[in-house]
Amino acid sequence: MLLFSSRTNxxxxxxxxxxxxxxxxxxDIHPFHMDxxxxxxxxxxxxVYRNPIGLEYGFESFGFITHYQDGTxxxxxxxxxxxxxxxxxxxxxxxxxxxxxxxxxDKDCLTNGLKPPTYTAYLPxxxxxxxxxxxxxxxxxxxxxxxxxxxxxxxxxVKLSLDHIxxxxxxxxxxxxxxxxxxxxxxxxxxGGKGLKKHVEPALWTELxxxxxxxxxxxxxxxxxxxxxxxxxxxxxVADRLGYTYPDNIDRGVTELLNRVKGLKNYDKLL
Length: 271
Description:
Beta Polymerase, domain 2; Four Helix Bundle (Hemerythrin (Met), subunit A); 8 helices; about 45% helix
């Protein structure tokens, strides 16, 4: 039984909501998956997300993401004992363990010889120019969907493309790259941009704040163009620092199309 991840990593930011990641190495994982009454041994269960059994590192494995009524969250991960025997023989630790671990119970000395963590797993790497351009193209691709769905008054679709794909996926990634360039690619953020705010200039974060609005059509049109402005500024900076080319022709062409759609009436043709 090992504790791993953020609560064992001296460089990680931990607070009262940080979960406990527990790895169990057992002779047979299947009974624990079929009957999960053992979860109650650790507290009164509130809700559980149950991952199916799959392959990790070539071994059968599964995880239960468990919230308890007192607010504690424990992510249980099950592997066969062969996984630890294999990990001991590897030239480097599996990423989950290299991010930090602490041995809680080891009756059979399975962890003897397990290498110490280097805490370098999951550190970001600079994108290739192809990866950079793919994010730019995905961003502008979905901006067209935002315009179409604003014209159609489809709120769910607007928010999916504007707030999730354009901002959460593309703009967040670009902002992370911008931050990592300044930190020499040495900062491991949490999932979904956790911790990014404290590494970003306050003025830039305020610009991001201002792109989040309610359900009104006009305010979402305004948010769309503010999002594009912010993305352009960040993406151009990333391109300059990495020696890449920002695809300005895509930006100009799509922005022109968005303005045409914004000006359409129900009876107008696009061209």
